[in-house]
Design brief:
It is a single chain. By secondary structure, the chain is mainly alpha-helical. It has 2 domains: 69 residues, Winged helix-like DNA-binding domain superfamily/Winged helix DNA-binding domain (Arc Repressor Mutant, subunit A); 41 residues. Helices cover 57% and strands 6% of the residues. The protein has 5 helices and 3 strands; from the N terminus they run H-E-H-H-E-E-H-H. The protein has a 3-stranded antiparallel sheet. The relative contact order is 0.13.
Length: 130
């Protein structure tokens, strides 16, 4: 199972894209039955290499998150949502751990860090701080 993050510039793009898509599926940004752009369309719109996008889609198909068609199209499957959510939960846990270590290095007290996190969690519909 992939365990990397979209924001990590040291990783191959195809791995980062696959992790980003798993997180997006877990959040509900893509629902079962939604069709993703074929790799050549992603290339045309975003100037990414077709092979990188295709590799990410193949990995997600192998993990059971996508169903691939003969023309490279990819459809989100609905039968692996629990695994998708668990991976997303692990991703969030690791990000929170890293943020807590950064806060500690900056001298932010644990309770202050928790208060900041709680405020962000309660922001309903507002743009999140990146």
């Amino acid at each position: 199972m992939l365990r990397v993050f979209f924001t990590n510039d040291d990783l191959p793009f195809c791995v980062a894209l696959a992790d980003y898509l798993v997180s997006a599926i877990a959040r509900g940004d893509f629902l079962p039955g939604d069709q993703l752009l074929p790799p050549h369309n992603v290339r045309n719109r975003l100037q990414w290499l077709v092979g990188q996008v295709d590799t990410a889609y193949r990995e997600l198909e192998k993990e059971g998150f996508l169903l691939r068609g003969p023309q490279g199209e990819a459809v989100v499957k609905g039968d692996n949502m629990d695994a998708c959510r668990e991976l997303f939960r692990e991703d969030i846990t690791l990000r929170a751990r890293r943020a807590a270590m950064d806060a500690d290095a900056l001298g932010i007290a644990p309770q202050e860090f928790l208060d900041i996190a709680a405020r962000e969690f309660r922001r309903d519909g507002d743009e999140r701080v990146g």
